[in-house]
Amino acid sequence: MNILKHTYLPFLLMLFLFASCEEKAEKEEEHPLEKQIAEVEQEYAPDGRVALFEVKAKKNGDSYILKGESNDPEAVATLKDKLQSENIKFTDSIQVLPDIEGLENKTRGVVKISVANLRDAPKHSAQLVTQATLGMPVKVYKKEGGWYYIQTPEGYLAWVDYGGIQNMTEEEFSEWKDTDKLIFTEPNGNAYTVANSKSQTVSDLVAGNILELLSEQNNFYRVEYPNGKKAFVEKAYAQPYRDWVVSLDQTEEDLVATSKKLMGLPYLWGGTSPKGVDCSGYTKTIFFLNGMVIPRDASQQIHTGEVVDTENNFENLQKGDLLFFGKPATDSTSERVIHVGMWIGDNKFIHSMGEVHISNFDTEAEDFDEYNYNRYLRSKRILNKEDKGLIYLKNTDLFTNSEAEKVKM
Fold first, then answer.
1. Among this protein's residues, is 339 annotated catalytic?
2. What does the DSSP 8-state code read for residue 393?
3. Which CATH number is correct for 18-96, 2.30.40.10, 3.40.50.300, 3.50.50.60, 3.30.1340.30?
4. Which of 6, 31, 339, 357 is catalytic?
5. Of 6, 21, 351, 357, which residue is the catalytic one?
6. Binning pLDDT at 50, 70 and 90, where does residue 401 land?
7. CB neighbours of residue 85 within 10 Å
8. Which CATH architecture has domain 252-393?
9. What is the pTM assigned to this prediction?
10. What is the mean predicted confidence (pLDDT) over 147-168?
11. Which of 31, 279, 303, 357 is labelled catalytic?
12. Is the omega angle on the peptide bond into residue 98 within 30 degrees of 0, that is, cis?
């Protein structure tokens, strides 16, 4: 028995090693060039919400075929350079977006309804990940059926159906930007067929909607939608865009005033408009209505601005500071940022949780928010801070061509 045991042990060991090598080889065959692709993805597209780099390699004899798509030509070029430096033979079949031919050169778009729902897949049953409001310019990368894969100004990638945007060529988009604009400033309202609020409604409008300004008639502005529809908007609810931008002070009090105008809005996962907001969609909306475009999600917003507190010491906070909540990092897990609100002073912050409401961090108060107090992570100040993640409408030509705007201003 012992003889048999000693005879079979080396044989079993050889079988185990052979099986292990086979398993490793199969894994390498299943995911060829995984290391090189992952390195480029980590450098150029670490956050898949704002950068697309979906590339795979397929073994083809002594060479490889690169397949997939990306909206970053530099990332694709870096991968090819990396493979060439390692003397790896390959055929490049990566689709670099936009798909100009499939889009018939219409690689630009402007939202043409009050609020467009953006989803994580090209179907209405897919998850709502964010929204874009009327007049918001977007990059268009590809088309699938009646859906378009787009990127918002803050970089968010998502799908919108054909009813949500007006597709444009670069020339058409530039012409649209050359026109005078109007911004709707009230949380909700309507546009009408004639200069009379009792006339037929053309569409609903929400705060932040941008329309082309054609003329004035009595107490109304005559406007045009990106798809050519014309309507009238009450002057009391809107303002010429360039006048609005110039008037922005971006003060703490302005942020608080805006936040309270949206009090009671229902919580909506993926919502970023007065029709419903999630926590980060709410803070994003507050800042947009004060002339700033900030990142979409709480886990992205936390990487902007400067830290003002990490110790539940709220004495140093100013109105407009963002408070972040979640689970701190441990030895085995990363930090998870899952909620955000805005400080409004007097130990209170406003946030979207169930609905937009005010919570109290005064530990002695009857309405003390113990739940959020216990999951607080830190606070950041982004108001009037310079950061690559923050866009100031005063300093950008998001809705207008800067040269044309300079002449008018």
1. yes
2. G
3. 3.30.1340.30
4. 339
5. 351
6. confident
7. 9
8. Alpha-Beta Complex (3.90)
9. 0.90
10. 98
11. 279
12. yes
